[in-house]
Amino acid sequence: MAILSTVLVALVAIEHVYILILEMFMWTTPRARKAFGTNEAYAEQTKSLAANQGLYNGFLAAGLAWGLIHPNPAFGHQLQLFFLGCVIVAAIYGSATAKRSILFVQGLPALAALATVLAA
């Protein structure tokens, strides 16, 4: 179970690095506009807001990575629980206020990772 939890936490971290890249560096590209359901004009107008959101996703990824590599396994476990909880709360809020699919795209993987971390 420990290997599975490590893999799932790493996948959630990688997902948030990808979101960081989309929001901070690719926000106005067709790929990001399709992923977030925006148009060209809206993407241009909200470029700095998206970059800010991307930075927060980077913090989530960094926290999860920190939890995976921390030399004290007990503290690393606590870090993983905390940051996975943050991802889940963000997914619930994003689903309620922005786009329902966020709950499934970000929340479900984080919930699966949280369950395996708790079971490990």
Structure report:
With 120 residues, this protein is mainly alpha-helical. 86% of the residues lie in helices and 0% in strands. It has helices at 2-25, 30-36, 40-45, 47-69, 73-97, 102-119.
Strand percentage lies at under 5%
The H-and-E topology, N to C, reads as: HHHHHH
**Tally of contiguous helical segments:** 6
**How many strand elements?**
0
Radius of gyration: 15 Å
Structural class: mainly alpha
Instruction: Specify the overall morphology.
Output: elongated
Average pLDDT figure:
97
Report helical residue fraction: over 70%
- Cα(first) to Cα(last) distance is 5 Å
Q: What ranges have pLDDT less than 50 throughout 5 or more consecutive residues?
A: none
Major sheet size, sense and barrel closure: none
A few lines on this structure:
The chain is an all-alpha fold. It has six helices and no strands. Helix content is 86%, strand content 0%.
Characteristic terms for this protein:
single chain, elongated, 6 helices, mainly alpha, 120 residues, 0% strand
